[in-house]
Write a structure and sequence with these properties.
- The protein is α+β, with helices and mostly antiparallel strands.
- The protein has one domain.
- It contains nine helices and eight strands.
- The protein has helices spanning about 5-10, 15-25, 30-35, 70-75, 85-95, 100, 120-125, 130-140, 165-170; strands at about 50-60, 60-70, 110-120, 145-155, 165, 180-185, 190-195, 200.
- It is globular and about 45 Å long.
């Protein structure tokens, strides 16, 4: 997967963390109840329920990078061996192939020019069991699988693209409790945290 935009957005991560910490302090008791899900400490260390979204609007180009623990999107992180697990992976992938709906992009006359989906779970579904077993062994039998989705859109009317609404993403993937966003747009740079109750971001 391309990592062209990761350096700059991730340089802004402390801004989002600082912003998020203001809210985390208010909900300390709530987070304590879910401490077992946050045992790894931070998003970069794979925190269930939390995803990261990088958004860059540059001219007519809108680029989105979503990174999430597989647990948030398919409900598990082990190799999809059963028919039921494979069906869940296929369903999640199908949903991720609809970025206009997932990110609430209803204005700006945007079309998807590129999309890449990457995950050990997807690779396992695309190869035979022997190939997947080799891949899984190479990965050290890690059960902390992630799913990365990278989209590039061309927007003919970027001036009309005022916001993104991730309500549909939260609805389709209810195990996702919050999304830490790094936004770079003509209006400036900002880090913010979205939740099902506050699912919109403005450019």
């Amino acid at each position: 997967m391309r990592r062209l935009l990761l350096a700059l957005p991730f340089a802004l991560l402390p801004l989002a963390v600082a912003h998020a910490n203001e809210h985390k302090h208010e909900h300390a008791h709530e987070h304590a109840e879910h401490a077992e899900h946050a045992e790894h400490g931070s998003l970069n260390a794979h925190e269930h329920g939390v995803a990261l979204l990088n958004v860059v609007l540059d001219g007519t180009s809108l680029e989105l990078q979503l990174e999430s623990p597989a647990m948030n999107l398919v409900g598990f992180e082990h190799a999809a061996n059963s028919a039921a697990d494979k069906a869940k992976v296929a369903a999640a992938r199908s949903q991720l192939e609809q970025p206009l709906a997932l990110f609430g992009i209803a204005s700006g006359d945007c079309t998807v020019s590129m999309q890449e989906l990457e995950s050990p779970l997807f690779e396992g579904a695309a190869h035979d069991e022997h190939a997947h077993d080799e891949h899984h062994a190479d990965a050290g039998d890690s059960e902390h699988s992630e799913i990365h989705a990278h989209y590039q859109l061309d927007c003919k009317k970027p001036g009309e693209l005022k916001q993104l609404n991730l309500s549909e993403l939260f609805k389709r993937f209810p195990a996702t409790e919050k999304i830490q966003v790094q936004l770079i747009a003509p209006s400036g740079q900002q880090g913010l945290e979205l939740t099902p109750a506050n699912a919109s971001l403005s450019f």
